[in-house]
Amino acid sequence: MDSPLRYFHIICTDGTKVRYEGRFQCRTRMEAYKLLRTKVERKNLHGLKYTITEIPIEILREIVDAIINNKTLPQGDIIKRPVYIMPKDTKQKYAAVSDWRRDPKKPTIGNVKRRLGDL
Asked: In this structure, which of 33, 98, 99, 104 has its CB flanked by the most CB atoms within 10 Å?
């Protein structure tokens, strides 16, 4: 199954000179990288500074819709800060966790140990 096309903005500089800049739809970032190599006609990009930035199509649709309908552009945090669960008993150090899939013998407050497998 082919992956969907993504929209990439590609820019490549050599010091202060812009060697290449363009926008293309590619399936993967590696495909965009190979496209950049062919555009600057080099086997590798050593010595050049480049960036390949994916611009999600959904975000472009939101921006275009806001511009066409004369709305304000959507902005702000997408992922909020994590919410920490405070224990009901203030003397406890840890809140109760309801699911320990990796450890069927889940630790209790009295025998809590930090192990890599518990994370």
From this structure: 33
Half-sphere exposure of 11 (CA within 13 A, CB side): 9
Domain boundaries, given as residue ranges, for the chain: 6-68
CA gap 17, 43 in Å, rounded: 19
Local confidence pLDDT in tens for the 119 residues of the chain: 567 888 888 999 988 889 999 988 889 999 999 999 999 999 988 989 999 998 887 778 888 888 899 988 777 665 555 555 565 666 666 555 555 455 556 556 665 555 555 44
Tokens of residue 47, six digits = 């010595």
